[in-house]
Design brief:
seven-stranded mixed sheet, Rossmann fold, 43% helix, 15 helices, 459 residues, Gyrase A, domain 2
Length: 459
């Protein structure tokens, strides 16, 4: 992202398409003068005279031609999202209206914003730190309440507060150590080696605790890729429909109805579950299309984080069941025994050799589904995770905290070996540097480019 920070930028900030309302956002020193060339307020005041954080009715005119009647929101620097003068035009959400209004912004001196450029300016102008900027993207992409909660906590500064606290502790320790180095001959109070080791160990434990939450945080943020696997006609598509709450897949009594992969995202106790319904797997079929479906089903199982292995509880196991089980030995699996409402219960599930929890359900009667959801949640989420606390969700943050941990561990090792305090101080400074990279106090333009390129254009 190689742009001029003093440019006035503009972009469509809402989804592009037909809708009740669409918003064009502008930010920069000339935002108000750009808008004033085509937006004509209904009142007596000019746009420059509008108080900050006010909304005004007016007309969008292309020369004398009426384009739309719209609302203009004015936010003056520095009290805006970006810290700059900002204007937001709320017009009707037609494709032509939005495109035409944006064109007039660009014709009158604004530049098309790049992805994430509004939020990048908020960061550069000190309105938010880098971890909060990343949280903006996570809030937009959140698929469940838990994912939104994680992102909202980070947006409110939970990670920054943690980082600042760790920095304060390390800075205090470093100041004491360096005072002892610089004024070793004077009567300056300094820490003993046991005190230094204890202080470093305390910081290490705090950071280890946060890193340990990444597994569940990543699940809440990205979801769990879940393949529904089994023989033909065991109820895989029925299970997908029940969990998704819609008739997403066609259900018939004819084996082999599902030929291609069907994907649906659902929330199970706050966990985004990316369900993939697959073709029924059987070893012997002469149907070329069905063979392709079977191959795709096995690939889906291989790449899945979790497999729901569906078997017919009313019939004995077959060679097809056993073949499927052989392919799932190294996978995280839940055995779903469907059709449990019918007589002739399955009795030989141990023969499958699948070390996994099993749940009896009836997709037809809609029974056992809550027990299945409980099993899914239990497999995905460790019981020792405090879901009420702050969760780490970003791999960049995790990597940097791991580097902080390595630096602290190196400092502690130097102290244990009785090495010079200069070596300990060197590692502590490295730890501070990594912490600064999390919030953006220490960063590079390349890193910023990667982070903000993931945003939509209007954010």
């Amino acid at each position: 992202m190689n742009t001029e920070i003093n440019d006035t930028i503009a972009a469509i900030s809402t989804c592009f398409g037909e809708a009740g309302i669409g918003i064009i956002r502008l930010s920069g020193p000339d935002a108000f003068s750009v808008v004033s060339r085509f937006f004509h307020p209904c009142g007596k005041l000019s746009i420059d005279e509008f108080p900050s954080h006010t909304v005004h009715l007016g007309k969008i005119l292309d020369k004398e031609k009426l384009i739309d009647e719209a609302l203009l929101t004015v936010m003056k620097s520095p009290k805006s999202y970006t810290g700059e003068n900002m204007a937001e035009i709320s017009c009707h959400g037609g494709v032509y209206i939005l495109r035409k209004t944006l064109e007039m912004c660009l014709e009158n001196g604004a530049r098309q914003a790049e992805p994430g450029e509004f939020t990048k300016r908020a960061f550069l102008n000190g309105k938010i730190d880098l971890s909060q900027a990343e949280a903006v993207c996570d809030v937009i992409k959140a698929k469940t309440e838990s994912a939104l909660s994680c992102a909202a906590q980070q947006l409110q500064g939970s990670l920054r507060i943690f980082v600042d606290e760790q920095k304060r502790k390390i800075v205090d320790l470093l100041a004491t150590i360096e005072a002892g180095i610089d004024y070793s001959e004077d009567d300056i109070e300094s820490c003993s080696m046991p005190e230094i080791i204890s202080a470093i160990l305390t910081s290490e434990k705090s950071i280890e605790n946060i890193i340990s939450t990444f597994h569940i945080g990543k699940i809440f943020k990205e979801g769990v890729k879940t393949a529904i696997i089994g023989k033909p006609n065991v109820g895989k598509s029925s299970l997908l429909n029940i969990l998704s709450g819609s008739d997403r897949a066609i259900v018939t009594e004819i084996p082999g109805t599902t030929r291609d992969l069907i994907e649906e995202t659902v929330s199970i106790r706050g966990i985004p579950l990316i369900l993939v319904d697959t073709a029924g797997i059987r070893q012997h079929t002469s149907d070329a299309v069905e063979k392709i479906g079977v191959e795709r089903a096995m690939n889906a199982a291989n790449y899945a984080d979790l497999v729901l292995f569906v078997a017919d509880a009313s019939r004995p196991l077959t060679a097809d069941d056993e073949k499927i089980a052989e392919c799932l030995v190294s996978k995280k699996v839940i055995l779903v025994l469907n059709k449990s409402d019918l007589p002739g219960k399955i009795t030989d599930i141990e023969d499958l050799g699948v070390n996994a929890p099993s749940v009896k359900i009836s997709a037809l009667k809609n029974t056992g589904i809550e027990e299945l959801k409980t099993a899914i949640y239990g497999v995905c989420v460790s019981e020792d995770i405090n879901l009420g606390g702050f969760l780490l969700t970003n791999i960049r943050h995790k990597t940097l905290l791991e580097n902080v941990l390595k630096s602290l561990s190196s400092a502690r090792a130097a102290a244990l070996k009785g090495m010079s305090e200069e070596f300990i101080a060197l590692d502590l400074r490295a730890a501070l540097d990594y912490l600064g990279k999390i919030t953006g106090e220490v960063t590079t333009e390349d890193i910023l480019g990667v982070i903000f390129s993931r945003f939509c254009v209007g954010k």
